[in-house]
């Protein structure tokens, strides 16, 4: 049975007019591959700076630009109260200067979903429930051919195996972090399949999506956390002006190792009612 929150209509979040438009066609490749430069223009690189025991350290995550002022990432990426978060957009090769395309901002404000805002350690998949956060940038970015937001779906939108979806990031591949932005096409799987006893055994909640291949081989990995699962809508699913665009269906959250058999990657479900209502509230009041 659905609770009252899930059956009440939810206002759609307004999208930027240039959202979800890429600069080049992404071919359908099952295994991970490098992207064409700036073909995922909403992809953000987040750098979190911490001090612990007098030691200064940096961690990285992915994120998604949703308008000039806001980036979505995973809540666990910004746990443990980083002293500084920088957000880089317009990146492809993170070892290159990319001065012409790169835009850097700092985080002005960080909002973690209430389900996860007090969690600073994650021991199991169930701890990733509500693993989503919003970052308000210190100043608006300039929307151009290299930096563009992804579209946000409506609250009642559904994504499944019939959608073309891809995950992107600079996470590990072959044991080492990639310096070139990579992507993989992944199917969204039925939640019941992912909750079977030979997989996550009931730990995948309605606030999560499960995507990948039960046989393993490819998926999100360390360093991809917080990045986008970008999906195209099925034909005629939305107004024609937005039907050929990319939508943020999920945010990379975690899984059991990388590409492990029976354990596809897990994502925060952007259209889940508790998550979507929270996004609408934070964006509308900040």
Automatic annotation (TrEMBL):
<dbReference type="GO" id="GO:0004252">
    <property type="term" value="F:serine-type endopeptidase activity"/>
</dbReference>
<dbReference type="InterPro" id="IPR001314">
    <property type="entry name" value="Peptidase_S1A"/>
</dbReference>
<dbReference type="GO" id="GO:0005615">
    <property type="term" value="C:extracellular space"/>
</dbReference>
<protein>
    <recommendedName>
        <fullName>Peptidase S1 domain-containing protein</fullName>
    </recommendedName>
</protein>
<dbReference type="InterPro" id="IPR033116">
    <property type="entry name" value="TRYPSIN_SER"/>
</dbReference>
<dbReference type="InterPro" id="IPR001254">
    <property type="entry name" value="Trypsin_dom"/>
</dbReference>
<dbReference type="Pfam" id="PF00089">
    <property type="entry name" value="Trypsin"/>
</dbReference>
<dbReference type="GO" id="GO:0006508">
    <property type="term" value="P:proteolysis"/>
</dbReference>
<keyword id="KW-0378">Hydrolase</keyword>
<keyword id="KW-0645">Protease</keyword>
<dbReference type="InterPro" id="IPR043504">
    <property type="entry name" value="Peptidase_S1_PA_chymotrypsin"/>
</dbReference>
<dbReference type="InterPro" id="IPR018114">
    <property type="entry name" value="TRYPSIN_HIS"/>
</dbReference>
<keyword id="KW-0732">Signal</keyword>
<dbReference type="InterPro" id="IPR009003">
    <property type="entry name" value="Peptidase_S1_PA"/>
</dbReference>
<feature type="domain" description="Peptidase S1">
    <location>
        <begin position="29"/>
        <end position="284"/>
    </location>
</feature>
<keyword id="KW-0720">Serine protease</keyword>
<keyword id="KW-1015">Disulfide bond</keyword>
């Amino acid at each position: 049975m659905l609770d009252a929150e899930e059956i009440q209509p939810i206002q759609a979040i307004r999208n930027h007019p240039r959202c979800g438009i890429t600069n080049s066609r992404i071919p359908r490749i099952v295994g991970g591959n490098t992207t064409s430069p700036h073909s995922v223009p909403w992809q953000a690189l987040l750098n979190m700076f911490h001090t612990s025991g007098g030691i200064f350290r940096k961690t990285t995550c992915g994120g998604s630009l949703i308008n000039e002022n806001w980036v979505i990432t995973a809540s666990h990426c910004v746990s443990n109260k980083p002293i500084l978060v920088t957000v880089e957009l317009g990146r492809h090769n993170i070892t290159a200067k990319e001065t012409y395309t790169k835009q850097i901002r700092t985080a002005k404000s960080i909002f973690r979903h209430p389900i996860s805002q007090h969690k600073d350690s994650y021991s199991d998949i169930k701890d990733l429930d509500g693993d989503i956060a919003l970052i308000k940038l210190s100043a608006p970015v300039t929307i151009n051919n290299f930096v563009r937001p992804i579209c946000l779906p409506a609250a009642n939108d559904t994504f499944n195996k019939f959608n073309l979806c891809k995950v992107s990031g600079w996470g590990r591949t072959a044991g080492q972090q990639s310096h070139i932005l990579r992507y993989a096409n992944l199917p969204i799987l039925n939640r019941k399949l992912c909750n079977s006893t030979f997989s996550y055994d009931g730990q995948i909640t309605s606030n999560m999506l499960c995507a990948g291949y039960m046989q393993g081989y490819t998926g999100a990995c360390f360093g991809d956390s917080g990045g986008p699962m970008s999906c195209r809508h099925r034909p005629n699913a939305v107004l024609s002006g937005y039907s050929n665009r990319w939508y943020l269906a999920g945010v990379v959250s975690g899984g059991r190792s990388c590409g492990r058999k029976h354990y596809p990657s897990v994502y925060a479900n952007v259209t889940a009612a508790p998550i979507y209502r929270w996004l609408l509230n934070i964006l509308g009041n900040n």
